[in-house]
Amino acid sequence: MMQKTRTRFAPSPTGFIHLGNIRSALYPWAFARATGGDFILRIEDTDLERSTQAAVDVIIEGMRWLGLDYDEGPFYQMQRMDRYKAVLADLHAAGHVYPCYMSVAELDALRERQMAAKEKPRYDGTWRPAPGKTLPPVPAGVQPVLRFKNPQGGSVVWDDKVKGRIEISNDELDDLVIARPDGTPTYNFCVVVDDMDMAITHVIRGDDHVNNTPRQINIFRALGKEPPVYAHLPTVLNEQGEKMSKRNGAKPVTQYAEEGYLPDAMVNYLARLGWSHGDDEIFSRAQFLQWFNLDHLGKSAAQFDEAKLRWVNAQHLKAMADDALAPLVAAVLRKRGITADDRLPLICALFKDRCDTTVALADWAAAFYANITPKPEEKAQHVTEAIKPALALLAEKLGACAWDKVSIAAAIKEVLAAQGLRMPQLAMPVRVLVMGTAQTPSLDAVLALCTREVVISRLNAI
């Protein structure tokens, strides 16, 4: 019987989560959903000085917005300290852990000597017990760290689902500190206990963790457990080619919601930052989950491109049902103090092909519900003294006709014929007065979605 897939996302809440981080949630979520498995959220909050509740809130809010639902959690490492200490005691009893009394000053001096000799700086095993070895005298009043007795000789080997076979000599690994002087366990140890207790089958994470993996595998084996399958994802770079980070201008994931991006478009775009399905650029969430596996993860760093993201969002916006799009636009309008009505789905249908975000679509929709101010340069260009009689006549015709697209089109044609004008000569000033800009979709369709009273009052405001 095959083991059920169990994946996890384990962010540290030490800064607001950005797109580079959240991609490390998308792939394990997708793999769990694609294989009928479980996805677990774990908050690695042991860095007490830098961890904040605000950062935790952004993680959870960002995942909720993107629809990255989790089956278990969130689990918090700080709430699991008793469990870590119990496992640590078991390892100690089994002889896999030893106390080390080397001070920070001694360790720094050791590293300086090694670097001067052009050697790799590493702990030299001074306090590691061995048959026939005499350890230094235990210094008085010093609380030791606990170090993991890394295997000597041989190699740590794993088949990474992204990077292929990786082999690290155990002699390259020194004895890792797994508990601080106050007894609190360190990151690499806590991660192993968590992955073991939560029965994680696949660890899909950024390749900045590759150096931790051989250490974690050795701890797994010391605990008598086989490690999970690993897949280390290449870095996401920003538009300048630097690693995406808050320091380099990356935005919190939640800001994209504020800027009018669609969750499914974000999932589509993020999925393509390191994974592909042939040449498919635009796909639904359902298609993504149907196609996703670990075999098509990219090996090269992916570069974020906001213009490409906006294009992907525009494609999803165009494809979205108007009734589904309208509530999203209504929410943007509400933040501006504007209340929409049942015309909004039709407004969305008319303007969505021109927009790349729901904020841009709300900009158009606002003209139907709130006062507009024509752009002065467009008003000066198009609303001339020569055209004003035609505008007055159109206001008169529109006051008397039925209020639908066909009747409005007929009224416009009557004014064109009576005034000897071509369509652009009349349409441009009407658009400027009614919508605030000279560029809109078909004039009769736009006017039909306005109320008669609004159109006539704006035409008369010349």
What does this structure look like?
- With 462 residues, the chain is mostly helical.
- It has 4 domains: 6-76 and 187-237, 3-Layer(aba) Sandwich (Rossmann fold), CATH 3.40.50.620; 83-155 and 165-179, Glutamyl-tRNA Synthetase, Domain 3 (Glutamyl-tRNA Synthetase, domain 3, Alpha-Beta Complex); 253-369, Glutamyl-tRNA Synthetase, domain 2 (Orthogonal Bundle); 376-460, Arc Repressor Mutant, subunit A (Orthogonal Bundle), CATH 1.10.10.350.
- Helices cover 46% and strands 11% of the residues.
- It is built from 19 helices and 12 strands.
- The protein has helices at residues 19-34, 53-66, 81-93, 104-116, 187-197, 213-222, 253-258, 263-271, 285-291, 306-319, 322-335, 344-351, 358-369, 376-382, 388-400, 405-419, 423-435, 443-449, 452-460; strands at residues 6-9, 38-43, 72-76, 97-100, 145-148, 155-160, 164-169, 177-179, 202-206, 229-233, 236-237, 302-303.
- A 3-stranded parallel sheet has the order 1-2-3, covered by helices on one side.
- Helix 11 packs across helix 13 and helix 15 (388-400) runs antiparallel to helix 16.
- The longest helix is centred in the N-terminal third of the chain and has 16 residues, at 19-34.
- The chain is elongated, with a radius of gyration of 32 Å.
- 36% of the residues are buried.
- A motif ('KMSKS' region) lies at residues 243-247.
- Its EC number is 6.1.1.17.
- Monomer.
- This is Glutamate--tRNA ligase.
- GO terms for molecular function: ATP binding; glutamate-tRNA ligase activity; tRNA binding; zinc ion binding.
